[in-house]
Automatic annotation (TrEMBL):
Residues 34-316 form the Luciferase-like domain. It holds the Pfam family Bac_luciferase. GO terms for molecular function: monooxygenase activity; oxidoreductase activity, acting on paired donors, with incorporation or reduction of molecular oxygen. To bacterial alkanal monooxygenase alpha and beta chains. It comes from the Bacteria. One of its GO terms (cellular component) is cytosol. This is FMN-linked alkanal monooxygenase. PANTHER family: LUCIFERASE-LIKE MONOOXYGENASE (PTHR30137:SF6). Keywords: Monooxygenase, Oxidoreductase.
């Protein structure tokens, strides 16, 4: 049987050193910065996982992206094995594995192996987008078969079967995999996965950090569609949000510059490594570009601990999320770690729904 999300569906009280009515978790993309290397990016992600474990965050997830020079988390299963070996209690997972890129059997074997090595610590968050362009997706899969997002429900069903929770796949057994099932989550930025997660009775994580306009509708659809299952008795919704916390609002604004410029370049078809705050500040934005960057901040938590507390409280009031997953894309690893420290120590104790 596939295990449900860790914790009760209604949320928990105390999570390690974080005392809050709402569990807090971490999403990381192993950002590769200007002047840095892939190895340094992965080392920084490991450092962040260890520190957030110490602080009491519930989960640490990494996201699958490809053909992006500024993101080193292209192989979640490999990275999670490394992180699991360097932590001991925090739940680790994918946020997510993009199922259209992979044969379900491969995913079942990879995450079955992780569960066999690290029981009760592994989450498998699944997305239906490729996490890249179609040319790269084809290079990953080597076939046009099942590349469409419309094939996702069938591919998901096959994956569940390999874990031994469905009707089974004749003559093919995932080893490890069968009997070594992670907690499966569906991820989404629209209503498709929300409806599917509800219908299957799975926990659902919404990508508020890049699709804030769709958050309310998707969560409402998920909760309305939810049917109790062998995994959950009631809906469990997690909201992923961008958060940059610094001692002052002004410093947080400064730290946010590189991620804004990185996202702008990505949308312009010019992805690259994350620029420095100085480069972002000196960039000659056109009025339209500046408007784009500012619009992307809608729904982010950005500022001093007091400002971030107000923003996250408003997000909880709006979404009634059972859990918040925070992602912090800044240039400097020390600033990234400090942001999570400030949130754990000065924001989390005051959060409530």
């Amino acid at each position: 049987m596939i295990r449900a999300a860790s914790g009760k569906a209604s949320g928990s009280g105390v999570v390690g050193k974080i005392v809050t009515a709402v569990p807090l978790s971490v999403l990381d993309l192993a950002p590769v910065v200007s002047g840095g290397t892939n190895g340094e990016a992965l080392s920084h992600t490991t450092q962040l996982a260890q520190r957030t474990e110490d602080l009491g965050y519930r989960r640490f997830w990494v996201a699958e992206h490809h053909n992006m020079p500024g993101i080193a988390s292209s192989a979640p299963a490999v990275l999670l094995a490394h992180l699991a070996a360097h932590t001991s209690t925090i739940r680790l997972g994918s946020g997510g594995v993009m199922l259209p890129n992979h044969a379900p059997l491969v995913v079942a074997e990879q995450f079955g192996t992780l569960v066999a090595l690290h029981p009760d610590r592994i989450d498998l968050g699944l997305g239906r987008a490729p996490g890249t362009d179609q040319v790269t997706a084809l290079a990953l899969r080597r076939s046009m078969d099942a590349l469409s997002a419309d094939d996702f429900p069938q591919e998901l069903g096959r994956l569940i079967d390999y874990f031994g929770s469905g009707t089974g796949t004749p003559r093919v057994t995932a080893v490890p995999g069968r009997g070594d099932a992670p907690a499966i989550w569906l991820l989404g930025s629209s209503d498709f996965s929300a409806r599917l997660a509800g219908r299957l009775g799975l926990p659902f994580s919404f990508a508020h950090h890049f699709s804030s306009a769709n958050t309310d509708l998707a969560l409402a659809i998920y909760r309305d569609a939810f049917q109790p299952s062998r995994w959950l008795e009631q809906p469990y919704a997690m909201v992923a949000a961008s958060a940059i916390c610094a001692p002052t609002d002004a410093e947080a604004e400064w730290l946010a510059g590189p991620s804004g410029l990185s996202f702008l370049r990505l949308r312009q078809g010019r992805p690259g490594r994350m620029p420095t705050p100085e480069e972002a500040a000196e960039h000659p934005y056109t009025p339209l570009e500046r408007e784009f960057v500012l619009a992307r901040r809608d729904g982010q938590a950005l500022g001093s601990p007091e400002t971030v507390r107000r923003q996250l409280t408003a997000l909880l009031d709006r979404t009634h999320a059972d859990e918040l997953m925070l992602t912090t894309m800044v240039y400097d690893i020390d600033a990234r770690v400090r942001s999570f420290e400030l949130i754990a120590e000065q924001v989390a104790p005051h959060l409530s729904r």
